[in-house]
Specification:
Pfam families: AAA_21
Number of domains: 1
CATH superfamily: P-loop containing nucleotide triphosphate hydrolases
Distance between the termini: 23 Å
Family: Belongs to the ABC transporter superfamily.
Domain ATPase AAA-type core: 61-134
Helix content: 25-40%
Order of helices and strands: EEHEHHHEHEHEE
Radius of gyration: 16 Å
InterPro entries: ATPase_AAA_core, Metal_Ion_Import_ABC, P-loop_NTPase
Keywords: Transport
Number of helices: 6
CATH architecture: 3-Layer(aba) Sandwich
Length: 152
C-alpha cells in the first residue's frame, strides 16, 4: 500500500485496472482511496467536518461531533478515517490496519461498515487481527517475502 501512494519507492511496479496499465499517479487516484495508519486530517478539522452525523449516530463518537479529530484517541481517529475513506467515490479502498487501537465494540462497528461498503466496492485490508478480518473477508492472502500467497 505504501508503494501505491508514494510513501515507499519500489524497484519495479506494474498496476493494471480494468485491463489498463496505470502509469500516472492522477489516474491511480481515480481508482484507489487509501487509509494509512497515521492521522491524515489537518489538526483544525472536527468530526462533523469529515463524516456525516448519521454515520456515527450509534457510536460513542456521536457526542464528539464538534471535537477536533486531533483531540480524539488514536482508535477514535482510526474509526473516523476508515469511515471517511469508505465513503469516498473511488471503487477500490485500501485500509491499512483499520482495527489497530480500536475497542472491540468499535471494531465490530467498522467491520459492519466494511461489509456494507464491500457490496459495491473492492476493499483491501492489511491488519494483524486476522481473526476479525476473516469474519469479513471473501478472500485472504498472506504476504511473505514480497509474494502474495493463499492463506493456509
Amino acid at each position: 500500500m505504501k508503494i501505491l501512494f508514494g510513501n515507499t519507492k519500489p524497484d519495479h511496479i506494474h498496476i493494471k485496472v480494468d485491463n489498463e496499465i496505470i502509469t500516472n499517479r492522477h489516474k491511480l487516484n481515480q481508482y484507489f482511496s487509501y487509509k494509512p495508519q497515521f492521522n491524515i486530517f489537518p489538526k483544525h478539522l472536527t468530526v462533523k467536518d469529515v463524516v456525516k452525523e448519521d454515520m456515527i449516530r450509534s457510536t460513542s463518537l456521536h457526542q464528539y461531533l464538534n471535537t477536533k479529530i486531533s483531540d480524539l484517541s488514536t482508535g477514535e481517529q482510526q474509526l473516523i478515517q476508515t469511515l471517511y475513506i469508505l465513503n469516498l467515490p473511488q471503487p477500490i479502498c485500501l485500509l491499512d490496519e483499520p482495527f489497530a487501537g480500536i475497542s472491540p465494540l468499535l471494531q465490530e462497528f467498522i467491520a459492519d461498515a466494511i461489509r456494507t461498503t464491500a457490496r459495491h466496492k473492492i476493499i483491501i485490508i492489511t491488519d494483524h487481527n486476522t481473526d476479525l478480518v476473516d469474519t469479513i473477508a471473501t478472500k485472504s492472502l498472506l504476504l511473505e517475502n514480497g509474494v502474495l500467497k493463499p492463506m493456509p
